[in-house]
Amino acid sequence: MTRPFFERIATVAIEKKSPIVLALDPRPPGNQRLPELAARTICAVEHHICAVKMNFHIILPLSASEILRINKLAHSFGLQSIADIKLNDIETTNAVAVDHLIKMGFDAVIANPFIGRDALASLVQKTHKADAGIIALVYMSHPEAKEGFGLEIQGRGLYKMFFERATASGVDGIVVGATQDKILKEIAGRIPVYSPGVGAQGGDAEQTIRNGADYLIIGRSIVEAKQPAKVAREIQNRILSIGK
Asked: Which range marks the domain in which residue 72 is found?
């Protein structure tokens, strides 16, 4: 049995001296094919990241074999791979989805605690048996996130309920947007925090780390740059310069 996902990615982050998770989330690439774009970007920045993340809009257009090849390339550089599908369905559907994603080479899957405490715990147990991990969505980074995750139910924030479900279920980490400074400070430190929204959505890399994030999910700022490696290295160096 291999080490748990949360240990594997932490080890890679130490070895690479980087908490950056590359979000392979390009906008429509025109004449560029997604597999080539993904491979070229991974090869360019692998020294400056600890993992890659693929969202629906790169997973859906590709075949299972194409995704597996991308994940094998990431693994060849010692990186971890995360499927960001925000899994949110009944237990049997979740189980089938996770099975397919693991076969395609993903090391972890992002899921929505909205499915309920027991369903999330069941998903975590199943995924851990397959040597993969679950990262729970607690608060997204986009401006409209407050319309859902910011709701209050009987005087309590929905994101707090999601956080409690996540920790009780034994997930490997949680997602809290880099734009959510107050919430990051409130709940960081008890479980690994992955923060999207740095760069394009206004989040600041250094401040997000100071607020308690363990990993930064960064996409367009790197993927769409003329020199992805240069941008990734600059962000990495800024993070290293502040310590933690």
From this structure: 5-242
